[in-house]
């Protein structure tokens, strides 16, 4: 069960507004995160008691200050990441809603300190672990790519083998339109094209 407690993606505008809220509530300001929204977290923790045993906090950074995107992956760009994972037994999280909210705020203050340390030293504290490469992942990808793409390649070969210029142009146009559409859909996921959620200034303009 994945919770993104900040509620929206980080932008400078949203960060400034979030820190104004933190100041008004007497909370320490965060440098690299937005103020977490506690209601969903505290509700989830209460409902999951007796079902799950722990909460895992994950802090992720991409090396070289790169900002990965689905388009970048589609174009074959290589990204390397470091991940800090911490485990918190559920019984260590307060049952009271207000205390659980304070626990979450403290957690994000620690995450901010982790981010600062990573920016300065290029590494997270604690035991380092590098997972081994798994050939089965590649084999699984190749298997499904072969199963799913074989009909398309067979159809394309048949189109070109037919020798019909009209049919070939129609097929190339269809492939080009599909490629353009996929890139447009992926482009919507970029941060600068994200929603206005958390941006009070945008709502005022509306």
Automatic annotation (TrEMBL):
UniProtKB keywords: Acyltransferase, Lipid biosynthesis, Lipid metabolism, Membrane, Phospholipid biosynthesis, Phospholipid metabolism, Transferase, Transmembrane, Transmembrane helix
Family annotation (Pfam families): Acyltransf_C (PF16076)
A single MF term (Gene Ontology): 1-acylglycerol-3-phosphate O-acyltransferase activity
UniProt domain Acyltransferase C-terminal: residue ranges: 73-144
TM regions (residue ranges): 138-160, 166-186
A GO biological process held by the record: phospholipid biosynthetic process
GO cellular component, one term: endoplasmic reticulum
InterPro entries, per database record: Acyltransf_C
Family: Belongs to the 1-acyl-sn-glycerol-3-phosphate acyltransferase family.
PANTHER family, per the entry: 1-ACYL-SN-GLYCEROL-3-PHOSPHATE ACYLTRANSFERASE GAMMA, 1-ACYLGLYCEROL-3-PHOSPHATE ACYLTRANSFERASE-RELATED
Name of the featured protein: PLCC acyltransferase
């Amino acid at each position: 069960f994945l919770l993104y407690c900040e509620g929206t993606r980080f932008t400078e505008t949203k960060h400034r507004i979030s820190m104004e809220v933190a100041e008004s509530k007497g909370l320490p300001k965060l440098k690299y995160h937005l103020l977490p929204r506690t209601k969903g977290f505290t509700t989830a923790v209460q409902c999951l008691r007796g079902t799950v045993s722990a909460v895992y906090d994950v802090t992720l950074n991409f090396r070289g200050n790169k900002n990965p995107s689905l388009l970048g992956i589609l174009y074959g760009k290589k990204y390397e990441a470091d991940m800090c994972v911490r485990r918190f037994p559920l019984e260590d999280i307060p049952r009271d809603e207000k205390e659980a909210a304070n626990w979450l705020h403290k957690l994000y203050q620690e995450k901010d300190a982790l981010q600062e340390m990573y920016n300065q030293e290029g590494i997270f504290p604690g035991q380092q672990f590098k997972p081994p490469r798994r050939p089965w992942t590649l084999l699984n990808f190749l298997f499904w790519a072969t199963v799913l793409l074989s009909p398309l390649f067979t159809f394309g070969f048949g189109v070109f083998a037919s020798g019909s210029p009209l049919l070939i142009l129609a097929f190339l146009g269809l492939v080009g339109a599909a490629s353009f559409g996929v890139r447009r859909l992926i482009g919507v996921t970029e941060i600068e094209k994200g929603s206005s959620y958390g941006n009070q200034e945008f709502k005022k303009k509306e």
